């Protein structure tokens, strides 16, 4: 429930998969705040953590994404209320990774556990003396004037210096007043394009000490642009066409805006001042402030994440945002000045950077392995060093974690006295005890009779079959000598086709098309039913099976899903178009927030469709009207509301490209048994959804609530 405390997650499309470590980060920071070395999660952000009333984790024992989509209509409350949804990577021991390995709730052991937690995370004082930051600045806090670059440091690091031969024609800011520790700080950042002259400024941003943006201006370079460097600068040819502002205009404005005792802050600020052709006597360079050995420098993106808990220069965005970078550099300098060198050294940035690089290497290796191999590798790997358990930390700080679950469930060695025999009893206890606890884990279960392996295999096959039917359309009848190529071309404009076959069992030929995304199949039904294709007026319909009788209801509910608010699907794109081309093409659409271009998960090639996410739902509706009749590089576009969020289309792809684990004979022998129990299962799931609804409604405002489908592995 979000009021003065708020969760923001900027994940869309392929980034909707998170690891258990990332979940651990979120829960630890939500529960502990900045105590015990808890930092903002790397993948999302909690605003006003101190206002959180509590954290509630609801675990649906041995249920997975398979259950969620098989019983999507039954999970009525869950899918409508919870706005953020992510796929969790498989884990050998789910609960252990949730609580932290070796978790122990016995009070007599917690103090010792906490001491070891602190000693693991914070460098010893003897180590601090060797830290380059301590060697450079000492341990004591100082005022900002202690961190401004000396004239020698400016010369050494290629800053424009007054009177220097290489700075003829440069504009001096004339900020000559004596600096004090209360002098105002200003963050500055520029984006450059490569021109015939060299690097020239194409965008300038200036922010004040409160983070307010004072200047964010596009600049027309004097020389012809050779390379816009759009990937980094975010600048395109189209953006600069109407721009009249030139470098002298910016120089004049900056000179007027800066007080006579202003201190400029930036990351490798020398490059910005050189490009601006300006000289300023007092600067703080965050690439030098956060000192490293052997002249190396931390990147701004890393420092923002490690020190401030902020994600900047995200890959989803087109290029860097200079205002964001200027603000980040400014906040880093403010943090350094306010906390002092010792506190900064305690962050152990070198270790954090090494850990991050190792994680990236591990992820890159895992990305090239098939899913089955990855899971098997995780199951076979020896346990790594145990993570400190934040539940122990909670007890030391006087908070009492609450654990509620069934008697037959394994809590991975965690001591807990709140065992119940039914979901109803668990709910009753939760309604009474959750308001008294700041951190609660509530575990519900369908019961062992519903999670047998053969039932799961049958359930998986039914979901796979239903998805296949929803992705499939039949079109016809066609003339005997119809052109299959023109049919494929017309239906291909609705989205990526997985397979196309001609049906010859009928009096006249029909075509069976299976798409890769739900939106494509629905678009074909909506736009081509009754249309003339390959010289025939055709009918387009899905196969008539028991599984798709509720298809219209399901499609409507998927459209209304909170994850699809403000998201539209656009098809008919030429595969030669890059993400940059599309960003430029769709930039005129109002409130466009994100563009997501799906890739084939095997070949990595772009599909001929994309998803557009808007800041407001109405803007998405307006965009659908605007796109009607649009042609991009000779290709006519088709669009509709999105049906499948990123993790769903990814999951559909995996379902369609994986083989069933059970043998066919065994599976079909058990299907009858599954049909008998499925009605009971629907009722159970519906009841479970009502339990979650009751528990959720009883929570205090500003409670972070997470519902987990851990699966069987």
TrEMBL record:
Cited Gene3D superfamilies: 3.30.70.330, Ribonuclease H-like superfamily/Ribonuclease H
Q: Which GO terms describe its molecular function?
A: exonuclease activity; RNA binding
A GO cellular component term found in this entry reads: nucleus
Question: Cross-referenced InterPro entries, in alphabetical order?
Answer: Nucleotide-bd_a/b_plait_sf (IPR012677), RBD_domain_sf (IPR035979), REX1-like_exo (IPR034922), REXO1/3/4-like (IPR047021), Ribonucl_H (IPR013520), RNaseH-like_sf (IPR012337), RNaseH_sf (IPR036397), RRM_dom (IPR000504)
The RRM domain covers 471-545, 566-644
Q: Which CDD domains match?
A: REX1_like, RRM1_NEFsp
Keyword line? Exonuclease, Hydrolase, Nuclease, RNA-binding
| Domain of life from the UniProt record | Eukaryota
Protein name, as recorded: RNA exonuclease 5
Q: Name its species.
A: Eudyptula minor
